[in-house]
Amino acid sequence: MKIHRILLGAASVAAVLSAGAVTASVLQDAPRDARPVQDPIGDILRTTPAQPSVPTETPPAGAPAPRSPVAVAPPPNVVIAEDAAVEEKAEAEVAAEKPVATKAIDQPATPARRQRRKFAIIQAIDKVTAETMKFEVEVGGRPVRFNQNLIFAARACEVTTPDELTEDAIAYMDVSLQPRGRQEGRQIFRGWMFASSPAVSGVQNPYYDAWVVGCKN
Fold first, then answer.
1. Distance between CA atoms of 170 and 154, rounded to whole angstroms?
2. Do residues 194 and 167 touch, judged by C-beta distance below 8 A?
3. For residues 193 and 176, is the Cβ–Cβ distance under 8 A?
4. Would the pTM count as exceeding 0.70?
5. pLDDT over threshold 50, residue 70
């Protein structure tokens, strides 16, 4: 009987402790009320009245505006002696200069005949392989093949006369595109080539460029 009471009391104590633990856990998980943070400096600033910090300035004393407009005289013209001397010297130098004599260009009564040459010198380049070559083409002679595809034939080649303003070499060329093994070709250029302006009068092809360099015997 005594043992039964001891066991019952122990069970009661255990139940009370378990209930207390559950209650403490529930209280810890529950939200708490907010608390203000201690800020002594902020409390002092809030309790101290603010003082005005805008400085006060007194307007400067000035003379009152005149009732009638005041006439302002312009300053006198000042002539510096050094500037006057320089100007006089420049005028004297201009007066002492002699006019440039224009010399007329002597034009012959009859223009000189251009000298014809036997060979035309051609410069050609393959844009694909970057192969370039300078070669001769005989006027009225056998055509010349470049890079197995281009055929050059010269019809005339002449140089300018001494009385002409620009020294130049001019060649009349026929250029055809005919791969080796084909019987017929396609003409891609026919006309005069000028050595002084290869970009204007030369062969302009997606794969080749060619122009005249000079004429020789």
1. 11
2. no
3. no
4. no
5. yes
Cα-Cα-Cα-Cα torsion 97, 99, 100, 105, nearest 10 degrees, comes to -170
* pLDDT at 135 > cutoff 70: yes
> DSSP code of 23?
H
Q: Are 162 and 185 in contact (CB under 8 A)?
A: no
* Measured distance CA(121)–CA(170) in Å, rounded: 10
Residue 72: its H or E element: none
Residue pair 158/114 in contact (Cβ under 8 Å)? The answer is: yes
CA distance 143 to 152: 5
Predicted pLDDT at 18? 64
Side chain identity at residue 117, one-letter code: R
For residue 139, the 8-state DSSP code is B
Name residue 159's beta-bridge partners: 115, 169
pLDDT in tens, 33-47: 444 545 666 667 666
Pairing of strands 132-138, 150-159: unpaired
Amino acid of residue 8: L
The whole-number average pLDDT for the span 186-191 is 92
Q: What does the DSSP 8-state code read for residue 136?
A: E
Answer yes or no: are the C-beta atoms of 147 and 173 closer than 8 Å: no
Q: Is the dihedral of CA 188, 189, 195, 196 positive or negative?
A: negative
Quick one: which of 168, 170, 213, 208 has its CA closest to 189? 208
Helix (H, G, I), strand (E, B) or coil at 6: helix
Chain-centroid distance, C-alpha 75? 52
Q: In what order do the strands lie in the sheet with 203-204?
A: 132-138, 119-126, 208-216, 203-204
